[in-house]
Design a protein that fits this description.
88 residues; mainly alpha; 2 helices; flat
Length: 88
Amino acid sequence: MDSYQTSTPRAALTIAAIAFTALTIGVSVVAPAKMGSGSRELAGAARQSSVPTPVIIEPASIEVVAARGAAFIPVHVRSVQPKRKQQS
């Protein structure tokens, strides 16, 4: 009987998948957390210079006029009898 030999491409793909997973977590979670922790001065400056932007909404209200007739939808209900206990 031949002994089992792992194929090199499968092992290389496994290592590459683990490396890409670590890279993805590092870029999406760790890097933004580190960038945001040292920028307290920038956040304070942005908060002080923020001015509300005036917005005009035209029209100020929307009027919807519609009529709906009464509609009855037939519903079929199946009556189910509860199971009775056997008498002993």
